[in-house]
Amino acid sequence: MELQGTWFLSTATATAPVRIYLRETSYAAPQGRSGKVEAEGDVLTFTAICGGTAFEGVGRYRWTLEGHTLHLDMIGNDECSGRQSILDDATYERTG
């Protein structure tokens, strides 16, 4: 997956630094958010346990990549609101 690596939220709207780590089949984000990720065309599907619940939620995001800049836009609804808050309409820069 060409999106593998470490990405840093590059917008001034973030209240704290946000890094996401994308691997071939998994992701990790702040506050213990982690789970599975699948890429199909220009859509990333994130699947993980939401917050402190036993509920497994799914979120789909359309991605665009320009150079070292990754932009994500939510498709429909993300069942994990915490994940939505760091991914929807977010622009990240590759750091590693």
Give unreliable regions as ranges: none
The arrangement of helices and strands along the chain is EEEEEEEHE
Q: Per the principal axes of the C-alpha atoms, what is the gross shape?
A: globular
> What do the pLDDT scores average to?
88
Which structural class do the helices and strands define?
mainly beta
Tally of individual helices: 1
Taking the sheet with the most strands, its summary is:
8 strands, antiparallel, barrel
Q: What is the straight-line distance between the termini?
A: 14 Å
User: How large, in whole angstroms, is the Cα Rg?
Assistant: 12 Å
What strand line-up does the widest sheet have? 1-2-3-4-5-6-7-8
Number of domains: 1
State the helicity in percent bands. under 10%
Strand content bin: over 45%
Find the count of extended strands (DSSP E, 2+ residues): 8
Account of the 3D structure:
The chain has 96 residues and is mostly beta strands. It contains 1 helix and 8 strands. An 8-stranded antiparallel barrel has the order 1-2-3-4-5-6-7-8. A hairpin with a 3-residue loop joins strand 2 and strand 3. It starts with a strand and ends with a strand.
How do the helices and strands line up, and which of them pair or pack?
Layout (H helix, E strand, L loop, with lengths): L4 E5 L9 E4 L3 E4 L3 E8 L2 E7 L6 E11 L2 E7 L5 H7 L2 E5 L2
Antiparallel strand pairs: 1-2, 1-8, 2-3, 3-4, 4-5, 5-6, 6-7, 7-8
Short summary of the structure?
The chain has 96 residues and is mainly beta. 7% of the residues lie in helices and 53% in strands. The chain is built from one helix and eight strands.
